[in-house]
Amino acid sequence: MEILVEEFENFQDGIMPAGRGATELVTFFEYIDELVKEHAEDETNVLMNDTEILGLMRKRASILHVGLANYCWFAEPSRALCLILAGSTDADQPLIGMCDSARCPQATHHQRHRPVWAEHERKQKVFLGQLGVTRKLEGPRQQAELERTQRVLAEIDAAGADT
Question: Is 107 in a helix, a strand, or coil?
Fold first, then answer.
């Protein structure tokens, strides 16, 4: 709940999430923000409204799984890329260690995840620079991974650029 509230406050400050799941999370935050504004205008029903908002926030927080480089909003197991790849879409939690957050429709990246991605980029560049002639096949795969990492970093930077 603490993470969700923090990210909601970031949303209110114009710091958006990135990643394939960002649109869905922003839509949720917009809905909550609208409820907060409506309830602020109608002081007659504040207690019920606050309870309603907290209930919605708790429900969303209950599906959050925290990864090192992303958040997984595990709303629908059938959409979880980790489960699809494992062939087990009926699980009740994600396989966070198998997460490919750059491709999963339920994953988001936030400003707090940027250092992890930046370090990954640095290590990939070093690794690519050290590849010898005998490892020609590994080069294109690692280059694609570097480009994916750079894309995630650019999305994180762009999402936080409005501040």
Answer: strand
CA pair distance 130, 26, nearest whole angstrom:
41
> What residue type is assigned to position 13 of the chain?
D
DSSP string, 43-70: GGGHHHHHHHHHHHHHHHHTTEEE-SS-
According to DSSP, the residues that pair with 73 across neighbouring strands are: 64
pLDDT tens for each residue of 64-103: 999 999 999 999 999 999 999 999 878 889 998 888 999 9
What DSSP state is assigned to residue 71? E
- What's the predicted TM-score (pTM) here? 0.85
The answer to whether 70 and 109 are in contact (CB under 8 A) is: yes
Give me the residue label for tokens 């707090």: 112
Put residue 63 in one of left, alpha, beta given phi > 0 → left and psi -120 to 50 → alpha.
alpha
**What residues make up the domain containing 86?**
2-159
Quote the number of domains for the chain. 1
Segment holding 72, helix H or strand E: strand 71-73
